[in-house]
Amino acid sequence: MAVEQEPLVQVRHLKKYFPITRGIIQRHVGDVKAVDDVTFDIYRGETLGLVGETGCGKTTVGRTIIRLYEATDGEVIFEGEQLRSLRGSALRQMRRRMQMIFQDPYASLNPRMTVGSIVAEPLTVHRVARGAEKKARVEELLNLVGLNPYFAARYPHEFSGGQRQRIGIARALALNPDLIVCDEPISSLDVSIQAQVVNLLKDLQVRMGLTYLFIAHDLSMVRHISDRMAVMYLGKIVELTDRNEIYLNPMHPYTQALMSAVPVPDPEVEEQRRRIILEGDLPSPANPPAGCNFSTRCPKVMEICSQEEPEFKELKPGHWVACHLY
Questions:
Q1: What is d(CA 95, CA 116) in angstroms, rounded to the nearest whole number?
Q2: Does the predicted TM-score (pTM) go above 0.85?
Q3: Which of 112, 183, 193, 262 would you label with 53, given CA atoms 20 to 30 Å apart?
Q4: Sorting pLDDT into bands at 50, 70 and 90, what band is 237?
């Protein structure tokens, strides 16, 4: 699918801090800097992959963009509209255009509701359809994700993990959104089912003109589905570029370490590859290091790294890196 070079979402200096409080009066003593000054664009019709280790802030970025979390600072601009300033009915209208597929299909579906009720809930909440029209739309959505419409009367516990994730996808598609945040939608599924769900998402993107922010750990799968990839470390994006460029020419030392861990299905190539083993522990987002966040673990650290924060800049057309080496 040809990606239009027109940003659907523009994220500018986005921050999300969670306050740390102590004592009976809940005194504010610090912040967990889950997302700390993140900037990027998501173009209409593309899939932007967001990768990084557990706890780096990937999910918080996705939830803050669609205002499941309120941002501490920064801007999220959706087709020219400043999302942080929207209130009431204007925000309600905008929410129809942004949906989320959650990570755990076992926890994200209400066990007391039938599949039909779960898929129809967005239609009910936004008063889009009712009666026979709503029932027909639910059947259409279940067909769209490869489930039998007769399953509408069943409950989530009667389905496998892959089928439950399809139900979650059907619910996300109910209002014909423009942007879907896919929060690790395949991480809790069997490997054989993962490919089915990813192929379904790619097919739906082509058929419905969807735009995805795809959050995941599996670098090979992200390369398969994404047009561009962003790498996060401790609340910041350290590198952002085309999916093939990031595999063939990673520039940030953290990205190089990540890519060295991806197995290659060729014994001769795999034997000659050198793994980059990072030493030390991941710093706490409540107390990040001075200067570059990666300076405590970086194999190429310099004196300036622990003193000044590197600028996130475009080194080559479309290739953004935050590192003092360049």
A1: 21
A2: yes
A3: 193
A4: very high
